[in-house]
C-alpha cells in the first residue's frame, strides 16, 4: 500500500460523522451554550484517537490506522478551533451598538424604494 494514497476506514469516517452530527444537534437544542456539546465531542474524539493510536502501535505503521489517526486529529482541530456562535453574534451586536452610539450617527435606515427605471426623465 502506498502511504500517500491510504484513506481512513469507513468505520472511522462514520464515527467522526456521527460525533459531528450529535454535536450539531446538541448545539441546536441548547441554543447559545455550545460548551457542553463541544466538550462531549472533544471527549469522544479523544477516545477514538487513543483507540486508533493503540491499533497503530499494535499493527505497525502500514495500513489504514495512520490515515485514521490523521482524520481524527483533523476533526479534533476543527472542533477546537471552531468559533463560538455566541461570541460571533456578540461581536456583531457590539459593532452595531458602537456604530449607532457614535454622536451624529444616522439612526434612520434607507427604505427599499423598489425597482427604478433608468434613462427616463420626470414628466
DSSP helix fraction: 55-70%
What is the straight-line distance between the termini?
79 Å
* Strand-residue proportion: under 5%
Query: What does the main sheet amount to?
Result: none
- Total beta strands: 0
Q: Give the low-pLDDT segments.
A: 86-101
With helices defined by DSSP (H or I, 4 residues minimum), what is the helix count? 4
Structural class: mainly alpha
Please write the string of helix (H) and strand (E) elements.
HHHH
Choose one word for the global shape.
elongated
Radius of gyration: 25 Å
Determine the mean pLDDT.
Answer: 76
List keywords for this structure.
mainly alpha; 4 helices; 123 residues; 65% helix
Summarize the structure.
Helix content is 65%, strand content 0%.
How would you characterize the overall build of this protein?
- With 123 residues, this protein is mostly helical.
- It has a domain at 3-83.
- Helices cover 65% and strands 0% of the residues.
- The longest helix has 25 residues, at 35-59.
- Residues 86-101 have low confidence and may be disordered.
Amino acid at each position: 500500500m502506498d502511504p500517500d494514497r491510504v484513506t481512513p476506514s469507513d468505520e472511522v469516517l462514520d464515527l467522526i460523522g456521527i460525533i459531528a452530527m450529535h454535536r450539531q444537534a446538541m448545539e441546536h437544542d441548547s441554543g447559545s451554550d455550545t460548551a457542553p456539546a463541544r466538550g462531549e465531542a472533544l471527549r469522544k474524539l479523544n477516545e477514538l484517537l487513543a483507540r486508533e493510536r493503540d491499533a497503530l502501535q499494535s499493527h505497525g505503521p502500514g495500513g489504514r490506522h495512520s490515515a485514521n489517526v490523521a482524520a481524527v486529529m483533523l476533526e479534533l482541530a476543527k472542533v477546537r478551533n471552531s468559533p463560538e456562535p455566541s461570541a460571533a453574534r456578540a461581536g456583531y451586536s457590539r459593532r452595531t451598538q458602537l456604530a449607532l452610539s457614535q454622536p451624529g450617527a444616522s439612526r434612520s435606515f434607507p427604505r427599499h424604494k423598489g425597482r427604478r427605471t433608468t434613462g427616463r426623465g420626470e414628466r
